[in-house]
Fold each of these.
Amino acid sequence: MARICDLDEAIAGIEDGALLAIPADYAGNAMTATRALIRRGVKELRLLTVPTSTLQAELLIGAGCVAALETSAVGFGELGSAPRFTAAVKAGTLPIKDATCPAIHAALRAGEMGNPFGPIRGLIGSDVLANRPDWRVIQNPFPPHDPIVVVPAIRPDVALFHAAMADRAGNVWIGRRRDLFHIAHASMRSIVTVERIVEDNLLQDETLAPATLPSFYLDRIAVAPRGAWPLKFGSEYEEDTQHILAYIRQAATEEGFRRYLDEHVFGLVAA
Amino acid sequence: METREEEVLIGVIHRLIQGTGHIAVGANSPIPAAAAFLAQALAPPGPIVSLQQSPENNLWTDGGRELFDCASQGRIDVFFFSGAQIGGQGDINLVAIGDYKSPKARFPGSYGSAHLYFMVPRIILFRTEHSRRTLVETVDFVSAPGVSAPGVYRRGGPVALVTPLCHFAFDKAKGRFRLETVHPGHTVEEVLDNTGFAFDRPEAAPVTPALGADAMNLLRGTVAEKIARIYPKFGSDVWGLQERSMA
């Protein structure tokens, strides 16, 4: 069952070398916890983005916390590219498994089901597949016996995400951000930050229960108000676009990125 | 106000999505999103429009994977991709320029292209730079191939490529683009000079039809406002709209 604790104790559950799963930026990113992880100096993470990421993967990569990455994309969409991700991949210092979104979903779904692998359409003839020796093409055992890609199940060591509220029993309401269900189901354990703790048991409300992740999937829960900043969080707050644009400009150089960390992660510079 | 290049692309895409039921739009695609919202605004309620990155602008309740589940089942009619490179056989590259292992340039990644490109009946390609470096004979990395060998399950693929100069249709049987129309103010010679792949073309390519006055008004009014809320940079660059913390 999950226990409610402070942020540093919560992230202590993410060990060096862990296979860490994080959600896409529309699902709820634990950014306060990510900054705390960087301050702690977490190392050698094998990072899985489900299925894409923006600032969260970018900061962990830039800060040297990531030994290997599996992703379908890391970038800021129309705002620009992710400079530290791009630099690390170009320099060859970040081993990357390029995926495609539904292949990551299929691998997690196999993990959720306790199956060894999952099938996924498409991919045949792509260089995505050509560069994934861990994936296979098998013959569909049923008519029309066509070739189909299968990917091995993924069971992340730990998932980290941000949600709106937890109750005292350690159940977490995720609303329609259903990716968080899938990630938590597939992962060995999950560490969650929430905007707030509520007194009533979420599973006893028939309206809230279907969007509530039961406590037994979760390990540690910490309260982190505005814990997704500067990213958007559901209907609670918007993305801090100006901050992201400033980040992209500043992190164009390694020195600029270090200054960003000093200011916004280590708090060494008055903001 | 003169018609902007982006508005010409939106107009062409708007024509190409006529009569479709469910339009899905992926990451970083303000031009297709504007065309889809315009289709809704012109003939309400119009098509279903689902923006993958924006829970406020889609009807999905099963997370990011629901788009791909829907596409595999045939519930999505149209999707859009761009590419760092687009190849003459319809291949798209969203990953790297040069050698994949030590690239000259690296892009975010393939997103869902390696799956959706096979599954969605009408994929419309758009590229805001029409040049020999973006439209190439052969791409450096195939995120998703334009055509597949016989026997490979494939219910969809590219049907068109829209650029600031012209509209190409994609001939699936030949695995080749064909010039359909050239945008006002541009010429076939310009298209030939700036395209790195060989393509078919008629004796005389027609001029791309412009958006009607009503459609243009809607585009610059309610549609532009909606787009600026989702894509603040695009709204600001194209229509001078300031939203949120972009102000």
Amino acid sequence: MKKIRAFIISFSAFSVLWFLYFPIFIIIWFSFNKESVSSFPIEHYSLDWYIKLFHNQSMINAVEVSFIIAISSTLAALIIGIPSAYALHKYNYFGKNFLLKLILLPITLPGIVTGVAMLSLFPLMGIPLSLKAVFIGHTTFLIAIMITQILARFKKLDPYLEMAAFDLGASPLQAFFKVILPNIKTAIIGAVLLSLVLSMDEIPVTFFLISRENTLPIEIYGMMRRGITPEVNAVATLVFLISSAAIFISLKFNKEN
Amino acid sequence: MSKLELKGISKSYGSSLIVNNLDLEIQDGEFLTILGPSGCGKTTTLRMIAGFETPDNGQVLLNKQDISQLPPYKRNVNTVFQNYALFPHLNVAENIAFGLHQKKLSKTETNKRVDEMLELVQMTAFKTRKPFEMSGGQQQRVAIARAIAPDPEILLLDEPLGALDLKLRKQMQFELKQLHKDLNKTFVYVTHDQEEALTMSDRIAVMNHGVIEQLSDSQTLYNHPKTKFVAGFIGEANLIPVNIANKETFTLEDKTFNFNHEISDSKGILFIRPENVSFDTIHDISLQVTIEDVIFVGNHRKYKLVTASGQKIIKTEDSSVALTKIIGQSVTIYLVPSLIQIYN
């Protein structure tokens, strides 16, 4: 009986993993195919598609745009997120729980809804469809990520640490920088990495707000419309590797303390 | 000279009054303990001295200066917290140096003071350890060193031994007492553990429902508790209902005894410690009882006695005294009059 249960559990676990990772594995494999048609068996392996990728100017531009958007919106979310999380943690005020739910909504709301909403609003506010609009769009949902991650750490932080800092002569500002910040540092690093990855991978919101310049996922999407080339496989492989590294590091930092 | 004075301080949270018009004067160099059950307002009182709470009414005077509105970082008092609250990202030496950096001491002065403190609490070998690499007792020593390092006017201790096991707690009680003697500093200690309070303190303030019921030294507190609450909270006590006709007598088990007291009600509660109930030292106040049970409790033995009307009385005696009584036997007991109190 126990053996059957163990078998069922491991079988379903492996199926889930297989469905999740087998397509990615195939993409990585095909990215080393010399031929331009993705079919088995692969006769010649090469790095041609990677070399071609690094000579593709519009792809390089897209990577650049993606980095600029990811870094700037993460930074903005960080600057808004840390004090917000601190205030949500420390003070009790009317409507706090409602406010918290409101902040978390962008995470659960389909990106397409946020995208369409911003698409209709931004021109009315005089913000043209542009990277600026994309930056604002990304920042809004990254704030939600930032606040949840940092708030979770605040909740685990011993409230007596801040009291001890005050007690030993530190003003609230000194206590924050000397005691609070060093103790939530790992959560911040984790949240930053996660935000960078999420911004890099984001399609729906970006899709509605972008004008001429493309971010990486939109560029890949455009390439796909001309048929799957092994170049897409090469890009996907690189994105997958970088993202997983970032997620891995972020998880590691969040686990600490 | 009074070091710290609490003048009519009150504090409420919402509709519940936690500290009620409390007065307390603490002498310079004194070891004063605020003792009481949880929820009596003792920790809130300590927090108002430290500055974590502001009293709704009244004044906190430190060296005659009103500090009740100052934030904690502007008060020259330091706290040892129950859960130690050591900074996890700093090592032992850095933790102790924290308050010294805030006081802008020079590097050499800071290092010297840190070494002094480490020696004082015998933690020199742990100088570069992080808090999570130490046991509870070791962390507590560092917390004490960190609080003493900036040389505060008063050291506040908020149930500092509460999280330690019994044996270590006993040892730390002794060490804290020694430390107090060596430093000649004013200690204000908060605890719910009456034995801890009796062992360590110069004076004890027993708190209940936001007020101080009695403020006196350990012996007076134990032998002459002023209120029924103090009598029941400190040590073991027989609290026996009695009838009262006038201020010169009381009636117990249909017998009237001569005893001067202040109770004007028709009913009162007689207090006597179990060790002051005697089988053979003859006194005026005597009762006929039956022995229900005899229990051996290590260094003493405990008799469970019952009167004809069913009133239970506990008596204790040294286990070195030969056991001559048996269960079911009827005996006469005597109550030492000078150690009796009668409460409302």
